[in-house]
Amino acid sequence: MSSDVVLTGKKEGKFYQLTRDPVLFISVLLILGLLLLFIVYPLYAAAKLSLTPGGKFSVSEYSYIFTHSGYIKTIRNSVVLGISVATLATIVGFVFAYGMTKGNIGGKRFFQSMGILPIISPPFMFALSVILLFGRNGLITAKLLNMDTGGIYGLKGLIIVQVITMYPIAYMTLVGILQGIDPDLETCAMNLGAKRGRTFWTVTFPLALPGIFASWLLVFVGSLTDFGNPIIIGGEFDVLSVKAYLEFTGMGNLPRGAALAILLLVPTVLVFFIQKYIMKNKTYVTITGKSSRRGSASVSKATRAGLFAFCLSVSIFVLMFYTTIIGGSFVKLWGVNWTPTLKWFAYSFDVGFTTLKNTLYLAIIQTPITALLGMVIAFIVVRKSFPGKGALDFLSMLSYAIPGTAIGIGYILAFNKAPFELSGTAFILIAVYVFRNVPIGVQGGIAALKQISTDIEESSTNLGATTAYTFRKITLPLIRPSFFAGATFAFVRAMTAISAIIFLVSARWNHLTVLILAQTEIMRLGAASVLSFVLIIVIMTFVFLIMKLTGLKQSQIFGTTN
Questions:
Q1: What is the distance, to the nearest Å, from the Cα of residue 309 to the centroid of all Cα atoms in its chain?
Q2: 478 & 516 share domain
Q3: Which pLDDT score, from 0 to 100, does residue 440 have?
Q4: pLDDT for 101-114, tens place per residue?
Q5: How buried is residue 184: exposed, middle or buried, by Cβ count under 10 Å (0-12/13-18/19+)?
Q6: In a domain, 445, yes or no
Q7: Residue (of 49, 225, 236, 91) closest to 156 by Cα position
Q8: pLDDT at residue number 501
Q9: Based on the domain organization, do 101 and 153 belong to the same domain?
Q10: Do 247 and 276 have their domain in common?
């Protein structure tokens, strides 16, 4: 009986704290309402359609998918691709991160840039580069090796492209983890007679294993939900994300497209929870006090040379793709007519200027909204106690786990009729940008707030300041780096979006990545190269300006250090 009273008292106390501050109360209700409307409601709409294909409850669409060989093959293809890419990309990311943290190799600043460069690229830029290099009229296959092959389409091409696209995910995760391993442990192991190789396999690798597994899961989900690369270079190798899109838009089978999107949602949400659990426990952290050494246990000269060669090879491979895109912008017809020309720039200006302007306009509008909303949610989750706090935290991070295809289908179903008829408007694009990208800001804000003592904010509150005033005048300036890092990442993600917004664009509000995809599909590779090149320049310029204006470093923006 007494325990019930205590529990009731705690709940009432939390509710009292919430209602005592009207601004906080309204903010929590508003944010919860927005998260339910723009994250939960679209998923509900997609799930409802998949389970009511004829207006009545039925699992016929799911039964059809799991009893027909074509769909079973698609599911198997997606899993095989995901496992292959996750394994290879994690290996590349780990070796790259090991070279940056433990290898003491030269050219760190250059390699760090190469470790994150693919993140700021259009989603299928590398697929376009692979076609230009290894396709039927590819520079390497057709011109240098005199090979007539289309074998780059399908599984092999997808593995190449996705590994290069996604190894930065593993790299960014593993850099922080390897930095968190106390170098004294490695040094002690060698002082006790263990050789460098044995020290690596018995000390460093086991401590990094949770992070390696978490990275593998993240890349697996990234491969599973990738839309841009498979639709360009997948060929006859069907995957779930593209199949859902084609069923929904090409075949007009809305219930089956929705069912495929929901099936894609299940493993991604499951992996999200597993990865969150692994990273939350942080079993890899070994620093319990201040380490007596600043450096890390040194590697042998041969290992250092090998790490340098590996990082250099990966970097050259990445730069080759960027160089190819630039080169493809200046020739008449790649693989056939190598005459230098500027016609693709003129053509792209005609067909793409308005789209570029609109894409930039919408990305700039959503950037401060996304960053500010992320910081507000982080502040409420970390600093306040109220009923429903766990739900707010969960919902704010949920969209990070939802595939873009599922989001796009959900949005087109949920916001295509009254009372939320938003299809074809700029608002629906801004909404999908904000709620797709807000988890990044929330994550960064939570990490920053946990490093700041609550004493300053409590002093402000004790002196009579409201929660809103304290957040605006005290907290936000203290987490300024996280705010601008979240804003920059939100801008980059908005400029390179494809899987969700391809369902939502209209004649009035198109997106540059959708236009690049359209030009690639009709084999105007010169125009696609120019538009990709312009998009990269715009993104790099924005990131450079943010770094100059705020003093942030590249590692702070993209989270490559602890």
A1: 28
A2: yes
A3: 86
A4: 888 888 888 998 88
A5: middle
A6: yes
A7: 236
A8: 92
A9: yes
A10: yes
φ, ψ at 340 (rounded to 5°): -60, 140
Residue type, position 418, single letter: A
Q: What distance lies between CA 479 and its chain's CA centroid?
A: 22
Alpha-carbon distance of 456 to 360, in angstroms, equals 38
Handedness of CA 28, 29, 33, 36 (dihedral sign): positive
Structure tokens at 324: 């190819």
Using only C-alpha atoms, the chain has a radius of gyration, in whole angstroms, of 25
Strand 337-340, strand 331-333: pairing: antiparallel
Domain final residue, candidates 272, 301, 328: 328
Give me 549's structure tokens: 């204006």
Residue found under tokens 């968190």: 180
Q: Is the pLDDT of residue 389 over 70?
A: yes
pLDDT digits (tens, 9 = 90+) for 285-294: 444 444 444 4
Same domain? For 322 and 346 the reply is no
Question: Helical H runs in 22-154?
Answer: 22-35, 41-51, 60-67, 69-101, 108-116, 125-134
* pTM across the whole model: 0.85
Coarse DSSP helix, strand, coil percentages of the chain, rounded to the nearest 5 percent = 75, 0, 25
- CATH number of the domain enclosing 457: 1.10.3720.10
Residue 352 lies in a domain: yes
Sign, CA torsion 346/351/354/360: negative
Asked whether the CA dihedral 418, 424, 427, 430 is positive or negative, the reply is positive
Question: What pLDDT does 561 receive?
Answer: 43
Dihedral sign computed on CA atoms, order 188, 191, 196, 198: negative
- Token duo for residue 333: 């017809």
Structural domain span for residue 346: 26-56+337-562
CB distance 440 to 559 below 8 Å: no
Res 183 pLDDT > 80: no
Same domain, yes or no, for 185 and 227? yes
Cα 452–chain centre separation: 27
Helix (H) / strand (E) element for 357: namely helix 343-383
Is 47 in a helix, a strand, or coil? helix
Show the tokens assigned to 469: 């005033």
Neighbour-count burial for 51-88, b at 16+ CB within 10 Å, e otherwise = bebeeeeeeebbeebeeeeebeebbebbbebbebbbeb
In a domain, 7, yes or no: no
Total number of domains in the chain: 2
Residue 120 token pair: 């700021």
